[in-house]
Amino acid sequence: MSAARAIIHVDMDAFYASVEQRDAPELRGKPVIVGGHPTRGVVLAASYEVRPSGVRSAMPMSRAVKLAPDAVVVPPRFDAYEDASEKVFEIFHRYTPLVEPLSLDEAFLDVTESVRLFGPPVKIALELRGAIASELRLPASAGIAPVKFVAKVASDVAKPNGQKEVLPQQVIPFLAALPASRLWGVGPKTDEVLRRLGIRTIGDVAARDVAWLEQKLGSAGRHLWELAHGQDDRAVVPDGQAKSIGAEDTFDEDLEGEEALRPHVHAQALRVARRLRRAGLRARVAQLKIKFADFESVTRRRTLDQPTDDGHTLYRAAMDLFARVDLARAVRLTGVSGQELVGERDQMELFRPEPGPRQRLNAALDRIASRYGTAAVTTADLAEAGESTEPRGGNRR
After folding, report:
1. Other C-beta atoms within 10 Å of 160: how many?
2. Which of 32, 140, 177, 279 could link 240 by a cystine bridge, Cβ 3.0 to 4.6 Å?
């Protein structure tokens, strides 16, 4: 573990619901559910006022309205959430260029070098959360730690609207009392295996011999042991340095069939394309990722005719890849990514063709979004789907 690094994980609180409460003053302080059809949809976001009733993101709406009959249910406005997200990330970039987006409402920031300009990491976190609150009127939580994993756990502990700093010497005792399910890679099945082994907390994992864990859990044993000791050497990778750029969403309530998954994949393709254009990159390969309810993951890749930063092209390729996946099982995650990235310098040609209609359209839409926000222009299919589909931004809190 490198004590020199300073990593901040920022996570917006109940993001979709917070945007709705901000934009509609009559909703402030009230239990709010952002969701689709009351009998067929799922909860996209639940405000903190409604959570004591047991309502959670991705819960079936039919169950949510029974648990909280007095809650105010509002349909999703994805353009408003994307517009708010763009402004949040602009604030992040004021403090460091090393920003790794995880979803619309979540990112890692490496502020190791930023302390020379802005002061200690805890002060940076306070300032950027203050800027989000004052300029966008939205709450955010932050975790500060020397590694990504611990920063993410710290932000979870700090919710709602708080922050938690974990110094290097505090990492192991901070993690020790937390349930083992907090470790990355520990889902319900692995958690059950750990419980059968007498392991219930991260401290229990840290106390075991690594060779014993590898014997019981295979290669995952060392991975969990390292995390339990706060060992996570992964760097914060901004879009411009990434080997791939992707977007994925996990659904706590599993989804079935291509039609239910299609809106997620479309939105993910558009998010990837915007990030590619922002980074000045194009993808040679489109990849579709699917994780089933039993946690088995499959990926399918397709080499594109030409490198692209166009969301429609990525979406069309991803949907073609669905034909190569057996969707007989329920799905808990989908993801789209652009891989084998190339930049402008990699695409220099003696006689470069003029930008085509799609490139000109994307450039115009980006300019409009930059000036007026992403809500200014949208496509007809997403406008229609926005009334009843699941979240495009992986809103997990």
Report:
1. 15
2. 279
Q: State the catalytic residues.
A: 106
How is 209-222 classified by DSSP, letter by letter? -HHHHHHHHTHHHH
Residue 223 in domain: yes
Nearest-angstrom CA–CA distance, 256 and 60:
13
**pTM for the whole structure:** 0.71
Distance of alpha carbon 365 from alpha carbon 373, whole angstroms:
10
CATH code for the domain of 107: 3.30.70.270
For 197-252, write each residue's pLDDT tens digit: 999 999 999 999 999 999 998 888 999 999 999 999 999 988 777 788 988 887 75
Pair type for strands 32-35 and 72-74: parallel
Query: Can you list the pairs that 85-94 forms with residues at least 24 positions away whose Cβ atoms lie under 8 Å?
Result: 85/393, 86/369, 86/373, 86/374, 87/135, 87/136, 88/12, 88/132, 88/136, 88/138, 88/140, 91/128, 91/131, 91/132, 91/135, 91/136, 92/10, 92/128, 94/128, 94/131
